[in-house]
Amino acid sequence: MIITFYGVRGSTAAPGPETVKYGGNTSCVHIELESGHDLILDAGTGIRLLGKKLASKSTAANILLSHGHWDHIQGYPFFAPIYQSDREIHVYINAEKGHKLLSTLFQQMDGTHFPVRVEDLPSNNFPKFKGIESELYEREGIKVVRQALNHPGGGSAYKIDENGASLAYVTDNELDPPYAVSTNYDQWVNYLHGVDVLIHDAQYTEDDMPHKHGWGHSLLSQVRQLATDAEVGTLVMFHHDPDRSDSQLDEIQIENQIYLKSHRAPARSLCAAEGMQIHLSKPILGGDTRIKIE
Questions:
Q1: CA 29/CA 56 separation, integer angstroms
Q2: Which of 109, 116, 186, 200 is the most exposed place for a label (fewest CB within 10 A)?
Q3: Nearest CA-CA partner of 203 in 43, 46, 27, 42
Q4: Is 237 helix (H, G, I), strand (E, B) or coil?
Q5: Burial class (CB in 10 A: 0-12, 13-18, 19+), 222
Q6: Rounded to whole angstroms, how far apart are CA atoms 51 and 84?
């Protein structure tokens, strides 16, 4: 699979001279499967540019939504494939809160808050309230396992396996929340153990606390520790705070390298940047998954 980052910010888009290097768009990650088909993780403002690329294709777009907060859905009305006649758009969501989540996704296109109403779209939008794992396996031949996020209002993490290469997408997740957890730390370690690539929310630093404790996001230090305990291959820090400048993220990259020198895992740690690509190649004869980063 080829993983491309189109939006890496959290909370709100942050364009400007201080965010040029890593990007200012909100959450959207594209996965091109071995078949050439497309899996999209969240529909933040980054999905607009992705839509331009996918407009030349005719295959279905499979979108997995983590939750319904604005920074994960506001790009959907600007996603070019939804304006293509009879284009199939499969939106997969957690069954437990599916109707409420779809309300935030589709009702933003009500003719008042956006000029085009969702019922007037020429594409075929297929919301999926259940069966994410089984339907995507049947449709695309990939294994998807969901896990509940620790986040106000709830949400879903996704672990995706294609022919032995694995990716986990865990955005908007608070590892040590002041409220009742949906998934405890040991469960996260077990869920993520040995994945080739972990994309995890790392929005806050210790300086952000305690003011933002309970807002539903993790500390950089907590995410490094989780990746180490879970023995992941590559950690990608994601959902950068809108106030985090390029120079500050550069400093975090240096901190990552210092951390890696004194710990066994992960093999590498990166801050997500728009346009960054990760190529995962399936293991050969029982070897390790090959990873190439561009």
A1: 18
A2: 186
A3: 27
A4: strand
A5: buried
A6: 11
What's the pLDDT tens digit per position in 218-267?
A: 999 999 999 999 999 999 999 999 999 999 999 999 999 898 888 877 77
- Output the pTM of the full model: 0.93
What would the 3-class secondary structure string for 161-198 be?
EECCEEEEEECCCCCCCCCCCCCCHHHHHHHHCCCCEE
Residues 6+ apart with CB under 8 A from 82: 51, 76, 89, 121, 123, 125
CB atoms within 10 A of CB 277: 13
Residue with token string 């294994």 = 143
CA distances from 254 to 122, 131, 182, 190, 241 (A): 48, 41, 32, 28, 18
Residues 6+ apart with CB under 8 A from 130: 95, 98
How close are the terminal C-alpha atoms of the chain, in Å?
Answer: 14
Q: Which CATH fold would you assign to the domain 2-293?
A: Metallo-beta-lactamase; Chain A (3.60.15)
Name the residue ranges covered by the structural domains of the chain. 2-293
**Euclidean distance between CA atoms 29 and 201, whole angstroms:** 13
